[in-house]
Amino acid sequence: MRSGLTSTFDSETRVQDDLFGFVNNHWVRSTEIPDDRARYGTFDALREASEAAVRVIIERAAASDAEPGTGERKVGDLFTSFMNTESIEAAGADPIQPRLEQIRGLRSTSQLAGLMGELTRRGVWSAIAFYVTADAKDPDKYIAYLTQSGLGLPDESYYREDKYAEVREKYQGHLERMAELARVPDPADFARCVFALETRLATHHWDVVSTRDALKTYNKHSFAELKDLAPEFDWDAWVSGIGAPSGAFADVVVGEPSYLSGLSTALVDHDLDDWKAWLSWMVISDQAAYLHQDIVDESFAFNGRVLSGTPKLKERWKRGVAVVESCIGEVVGQLYVDEHFPPRAKERMEELVANLIEAYRRDFESLEWMSPATRERALGKLAQFTPKIGYPDKWRDYCALEIDADDLLGNLARSAEFELNRQLGRIGQPIDRTEWLMTPQTVNAYYHPMMNEIVFPAAILQPPFFDVDADDAVNYGGIGAVIGHEIGHGFDDQGSRFDGDGSLTDWWTPEDRERFEERAQKLIDQFDQESPADAPDIKVNGELTVGENIGDLGGLTIGYKAYSIAQEENPAPELDGFTGDQRFFLGWSQVWCGKARPDEAKRLIAIDPHAPANCRANVARNLREFHEAFDVQPGDGMYLAPEDQVRIF
């Protein structure tokens, strides 16, 4: 039996001082981030492997003689349309000129709203984005959720905080250069108008902490109430442009109501010409990656180099794979699973998940701060969890989607329209509980609060997360803790507001909620003092990352408990010089091996609800089991006094 440890440990770092550093610093010092990436680590290495496997599948489809209309043919033709650089270069900026001309011809804000809707249908988001999912207050039916949109910079904070002043200046230059390449008249005035209007919209955007609040962002409105909320926006024209079925927007959930009110006033305060320039920019920026090389390069120069510090654009085949994945990913997923996911991996994962759920059950039954009333509901919710492992039981049907090997932008527009029709057609209908929101070849996992389900695609189920032939310790420290993390999202600061049926309802006693929030606040305060290893001059936003930090802490705590359950009959041997308990924590840390460019580290601090990798690994300092495994003592870097350790589950 192999240990499953894949790291070359750092002899210059004591594990008692820095778990992340002991496991990963040798790799960090000896590994260069690839030129086409802003960060690189365990997840990225697995994504590269998945990407390479998918490339083989896609290129094989492109070279095949598969029948027209088959999934394989569509995969190959979509990739071919992206790789046809000769045709793309010859077209230049011509493909977007009819749309830009249409925008220049707008004569009213009603026409503007209608065209925003039409562009949404073709995959171009503008001032309002929407998605369709289960109604959080009636989770057996689908409803549309409207959310804020319309900014070219990563977040509203980029428009107001002093630390982003240089980025704002470069962005305005970028706007002007892109306008020149897109053959827009008076590029300087165009850039001024776009930036002014985005700055105005940003004043109405909610910040990243508010937008993750499940209660604040659930605001159900009738269509009539939507009109009252934003009277200057022509909702009828927008819905007509989208092509929504009658009654689809009779009721909607508005994420940020004050944003829509602000959008309404901005329609009055800004000239129509400003709005036309801004909508033109929405089209240009959305289509830039699919036009001629000069526009592609300029788009990357800002979005890649300036925002994230990435030196080099990804090779075209990688971008082509991403296009196919985004449009018809489940077709590729079927082919991927057949070649890369053995049945016994699913069987071992089912065993792991069962032990994790059992560990949570035992934990809730003995949790000292949780009252009997809340405990009963928590156990009920846990019993209703649905795990999905590897790949969907039912694959998505793409028969109605037309793909043409000679029409890249048309393929993208038709793909967007196909997906929009699928989403709109579900509104008001019963929930499809077989659906997956990730493809099997995705290296990630998720918890869906309205479905009360955890989903683990096939591509993440490989070392160092999961090794079907390795000892339990590292598997439980890796994928086991990740499973625990995802289950834990059902009980974090937001997931805990949904009951076992997926309904947004308060099932906690006030006293339990208060005790939970005291512990969460302690974790917020702890992470507020931490910094990314790649940008040590800035601090983590503990309030933004609290949900993921609770997930990490709970996942590691329950992962360890599940590992203990697995060892009840067969205690772990010592392997590679480490006890089973030690290997568990080392396995956890090697999952978070990674590094980021400083600009990317700073960008992620502003917008990412996940803490930096080093902070995620070192959350282990909150566990007494970690202290015991490595004999951590006062004065050690990882030491936390018992009264300072946060233990929620």
Automatic annotation (TrEMBL):
It comes from the Bacteria. Its cofactor is Zn(2+). PROSITE patterns: NEPRILYSIN. One of its GO terms (cellular component) is plasma membrane. Residues 16-392 form the Peptidase M13 N-terminal domain. Residues 444-646 form the Peptidase M13 C-terminal domain. Keywords: Hydrolase, Metal-binding, Metalloprotease, Protease, Zinc. InterPro entries: MetalloPept_cat_dom_sf, Peptidase_M13, Peptidase_M13_C, Peptidase_M13_dom_2, Peptidase_M13_N. GO terms for biological process: protein processing. GO terms for molecular function: metal ion binding; metalloendopeptidase activity. SUPFAM superfamilies: Metalloproteases ('zincins'), catalytic domain (SSF55486). PANTHER family: FI17812P1-RELATED, ZINC METALLOPROTEASE FAMILY M13 NEPRILYSIN-RELATED. Belongs to the peptidase M13 family. This is Putative endopeptidase.
